[in-house]
Amino acid sequence: MPENDLSRTVVNAVNAAEVAFSKFITANDTGATGAHQAGFYLHKSSWPLYFDEPGIRGSNKDKTVRIKWHDDFETESRFIYYGTGTRNEYRLTRFGRDFPFLRDENVGDLLVLCKMNAEEYKGYVLSSDEDIDNFLDALGISSPETNRLIKAEPPPDEEQPLLQQLFSNYVAGLDRNFPQTEEVADSARRLLMQASNQQLPDIRKAPDKEILRWIDAEYQLFRDIESDYYAEVISRPFENMDSFVQIANSVLNRRKSRAGKSLEHHLSFMFEAFSLRFKDQPKTEGKKRPDFIFPGEDEYHDLSYSTDNLIFLGAKTTCKDRWRQILNEADRIKTKHLFTLQQGISSGQLKEMRIHGVKLVVPKEYITAYPPEHRDEISPLIDFIGYVKEKQS
Amino acid sequence: MPENDLSRTVVNAVNAAEVAFSKFITANDTGATGAHQAGFYLHKSSWPLYFDEPGIRGSNKDKTVRIKWHDDFETESRFIYYGTGTRNEYRLTRFGRDFPFLRDENVGDLLVLCKMNAEEYKGYVLSSDEDIDNFLDALGISSPETNRLIKAEPPPDEEQPLLQQLFSNYVAGLDRNFPQTEEVADSARRLLMQASNQQLPDIRKAPDKEILRWIDAEYQLFRDIESDYYAEVISRPFENMDSFVQIANSVLNRRKSRAGKSLEHHLSFMFEAFSLRFKDQPKTEGKKRPDFIFPGEDEYHDLSYSTDNLIFLGAKTTCKDRWRQILNEADRIKTKHLFTLQQGISSGQLKEMRIHGVKLVVPKEYITAYPPEHRDEISPLIDFIGYVKEKQS
């Protein structure tokens, strides 16, 4: 009877693990690219999951382990480092026949690997949007922060010390209310641009990369605010379970609510940076309010305005199941563009989307996670913006 | 984009409230009984929500308040105590025209009223099974514990001090592992029977009442174990958000998992108490495993065994949306009995159920929460047991 059992099981496994890692399964992993035997590519930073030290260029290295999948069946699989020739990569291979998690339909699922101890590994694959979101929210991970160890420090980058300083100042200046999602999103973006010494022209050069950086920065700022906001209450003993659970609900509910609107805020800012005309949350039919209509709500309701020049854009961080929600959000516009942070979708789902007139807009670096035969149909954000600009010129 | 926003909003409101109250909306409330003007009957124990002291027999008393519903629109409504004549009851009335929460389809929804301060009230109505479960789980309330103030001490009853003592001894005897759901359910029932000096013949006299007492006792024992289990960790300062969130996830995930199987354990015990032949979690077609088949799995698969003597029973604490899940769980048995703790279902849904061959089995005292014209179709547990017994005699 309980729903969401799986995401809870996986959160518990990660919490009990020595080291844990997550990544979205790509078309390359499942072998849909035809380039090689199927297996999971693992980011270089994942080496503590299976080795005592990173692989060294010039030689290969491997380790065979037993992995228990979904607390059910085991595989004897192999972590391998390829360091010879031009290669420098880690993979997890050998799952035997009938392994159920390396099929086309697993593209876009979230793989979670847990090292429980030196001998014991657990593996899970989360498929539904809801399970994936619940898992990421519970652990406070943003979807661009996958493909790395869970709970590891984020890799330092150039502007990091300055940005961290700006974030600290910002947090110190807050009053005792937790700022609204939009305020956190805007501040994170503003401070990141300041730390990186960026102006709007810099943003316009690489919108696909920038929007991911904004999302990353926003999560980081959110966690800084959270740490400060709850610092006192979690450092004092709780009187009883009720008072503990009250704070626990407040923290976890806030994390779940956070992700909701921020993608839309960042997209709005981006469209403004490109001087596009648009309306967010426009009314269409009845009570329906899609995320964006270009150039605006008035034009949408002006039947003399050419339908050809109306553009629809939905925005969903994950959309493996949820893409259907946008289908009836604007009757006049047959083609539904959908911006998503989804790192890969199966070719079966992509065909369904095509039939229903859904066109994906995806940050450029994520497009390689999609099956090759569909990549042409997927626009990076910069191309989508160019398309809108042309219609509006 | 975020799911379950509503249940989280309501949990937050309850946590911020001075006093809060919840109840399942009944057919009587919505006026489906035709007996009176629509309005919510409130349990006598709810008086702190609106008065400084309980109503006194012999006179009426009322208070007009503004209630903000779903953080959206307000009503100027009236709490009223009827104490004259033979009456002794509290109601909440006056919502104006077009009030959306007193319709037939609201029967079985969960009403939550929060007194934020002397002047400010908030009201919410949760409709989906998922929202209702999320809400109750987050606050650690069992569904029989509704219709009272939230977080108030449960009313003391006769065996309470002895039962509390037995529970304390049980908890003190546990090792450092949290016991499994089935173990908690069995122990709570056993200790309750001991505290009440009951034997199986006593149980057989009133199965409808006993099963609710078991569920109540199980929740109480669960919370006792939980308090003990986490006592140390919540009394020490947490090092950082990560360590707090890890425990928060563990506590809340455990609460959500708890409810899952316990209803089935209690029903199994009850059927054994009546010496019924049954199989829980039998295999039917493919991978399907319904909750119960009478008299057993072998008979189900023996095509020479008369279909007339096969009985199906599903078990779901809430089933407003989820009842459809049982429809294809056993092809041979057209009539699907469904045991539920659901306190009321709209007549629209009940008609749908009838069309699909679903027959409800509901603890006797909850049947009055259902629309009168459907009560005949609903069996109390004792009648269902009698029906099975007859088939097996």
Q: What does this molecule look like?
A:
Two copies of one chain form a homodimer. The first copy, chain A, has 393 residues and is α+β, with helices and mostly antiparallel strands. Chain A has three domains: 5-149, At1g16640 B3 domain, CATH 2.40.330; 160-260, no CATH class; 279-392, 3-Layer(aba) Sandwich (Restriction Endonuclease). The first copy, chain A, has ten helices and 13 strands. Chain A has helices at residues 5-16, 129-139, 160-172, 181-195, 200-205, 207-235, 241-273, 297-301, 347-355, 381-392, and strands spanning 19-24, 40-42, 61-69, 73-82, 89-93, 110-117, 120-126, 148-149, 279-280, 292-294, 311-316, 336-340, 358-361. In chain A, the strands form two sheets. Chain A has an eight-stranded mixed β-sheet. Chain A has a five-stranded mixed β-sheet with strand order 9-10-11-12-13. In chain A, α4 (181-195) crosses α7 and α6 (207-235) packs antiparallel against α7. The longest helix of chain A is centred in the middle third of the chain and has 33 residues, at 241-273. Chain A starts with a helix and ends with a helix. Chains A and B meet through α1, α2, α6 and α7 of A and α1, α2, α6 and α7 of B.
